[in-house]
Amino acid sequence: MRKKINKYHILFFLICFSYSADIFAQYPTVRERVINLPTFDQKTIHYGYFLGYNQYDFKFEYVENYYKDLLYKDIAVIPKSGFAVGLIGDLRLNTYFNIRFEPGLYFSKRELEYPNVVGFENETDKIREIKSTYIHLPLILKVSAKRINNFRPFVMAGFSTDFNLSSNNKNRDDNASNVFRTTAQNLNYELGLGFDFYLYYFKFSPSIRGIFSFQNELIPDANPNSPWTGIINSMFSRGIAIIITFE
């Protein structure tokens, strides 16, 4: 599942990049129209809010000889649909560069399906459901192209930290009691692209973003030979989000 999602991410970004490049090439031929919000981008600071959809999965790094001993069976991650909501603070650096702070709540759910070869007493033990409620705090650099009429493409990159309110990190129970534990905080880097549309009263901006954790989120079970965590060295979140902002 993880490999399929990663390939989908790459393909989607390539398609969007090609589409953006085609739009840039057509700039000289676009006819002038009535300009909405002509001074909007001249504001030093402005605010807004966003709504979004997300899907998260996990990247696993297994213990040494895991594939040899277990016949190359990965843990399957089944991502579920989630949503996000939050606020926006935007600081203009110059015509093309902005620094943005976008604090929000991200709700997500994932299911882990362990391979049969690991060995469990009950069939239900193979499944672990992981619900996450993130306080998501990203600091993002937004790089915009030249505005043409009421349209402006952009790319963005930055770093973020998450505080997971559903991590169970302080819970003394573990997977032996059907409690999967993760760390309460993790760090990510983010990449994305989107388009600004200048409407009569506000700016509307859809974007797609990749969120990639580079901090191990796994809290091992008390039993070092646990079939749920004993086979995993590290676990990292990977997410894709479609965000719609209103500014």
Describe the structure.
There is one protein chain. This protein has 247 residues and is mostly beta strands. It has a single domain (2-25, 47-246), classed as Porin (Beta Barrel), CATH 2.40.160. Helix content is 11%, strand content 49%. The protein has two helices and ten strands, in the order αβαβββββββββ. The protein has helices at residues 2-25, 66-69; strands spanning 45-62, 76-79, 81-92, 97-101, 104-113, 127-144, 151-164, 185-198, 203-213, 232-246. Strands 1, 2, 3, 4, 5, 6, 7, 8, 9 and 10 form a ten-stranded antiparallel β-sheet that branches. A hairpin with a 4-residue loop joins strand 3 (81-92) and strand 4. The radius of gyration is 21 Å and the shape is elongated. The two termini are 36 Å apart. Mean pLDDT is 87; it is low at 1-5.
